[in-house]
């Protein structure tokens, strides 16, 4: 779990003899670092909120295919969206914009608790998505997760994340430390810090190691084993249980694209969160012994920026590697730039004024029954329009049932 320190400076309300002083005073970010952080964090928050909102809209309103992987990707987008809404702006305001913590004790607890929930939910959503892909590829004849089962699993992931993060809520508190900022002792300040209750060093070290292991090391080991196994399986001459054919070659290519995209998402998570996990759980107690105090704000800024940027990069990965997501992003971007109505009108227009005609084709091929639902998103004046598929198109429709949603 990351520890977030928020500070503000006010005049001490104590006499010189009653104040508790710290020598030397905590390091303050220099002006150039504050200016850089304001620009970078503002841009990062906008991209995180906008990009993950596009992912959510694309999955549920554009693709129209609620596969298990789609639902897990949407859940990742939800956690990343709230990081952009809550975590990034709080750090920007408290640490750099105002150098002040105006939010009170509850927000100190709630912000740290929420960030822990988002991190844990992200990690175990990645695991659930990788295991789902593993079962689908290694054991293709086994039944896949239904949409209802995916929703239940996602709900359980959120519940586990909340329960796991509850200690963070109860152990966070606000403390005030007075100190002299100048050398003549005429000015006194107090620094208010949102941090964990002081634990014994041995207990704190055990807690940090457990946190690092449960939410970072073990998940990354599981994910590495799963994706290495999947990569090896897909590199074989054919997938198990499938015949050699042009159709199966397309399916195999589509599966490779999905696995490659998901593995890059996992790699980016590991890379982005490594510095923050290293700083918080290993280096933090010894940092002042290793580096000069004046470099602490710079190192913390770099580590925290990398961790928060992970919530921004996933939409770019989807857009680059998936033609479906790329088309969905372009669709909603075009709608956003050309629409002059309210947000409510935009969503209503997306679902109602833009004619969506559901076309169902039921047929039998090779002694197997197929039922295909196709959505026509073309504008038309006749909302009751129908379309009849000619017989010559049925073989083509049958292949659609087997194609991946990401190709």
TrEMBL record:
Membrane-crossing segments per the record: 31-59, 71-93, 113-131, 151-170, 206-228, 258-279, 299-321
Domain of life assignment: Eukaryota
Topology in the lipid bilayer: Multi-pass membrane protein
Secretion signal span: none
Stored SUPFAM superfamilies: Family A G protein-coupled receptor-like (SSF81321)
One Pfam family matching this protein: 7tm_1
Keywords: G-protein coupled receptor, Membrane, Receptor, Transducer, Transmembrane, Transmembrane helix
Places the protein is found: Membrane
Single GO molecular function: neuropeptide Y receptor activity
GO CC, any one term: plasma membrane
Location of the G-protein coupled receptors family 1 profile domain: 51-318
Gene3D superfamilies the UniProt entry points to: Rhodopsin 7-helix transmembrane proteins (1.20.1070.10)
Protein family (similarity comment): Belongs to the G-protein coupled receptor 1 family.
Designated name of the protein: G-protein coupled receptors family 1 profile domain-containing protein
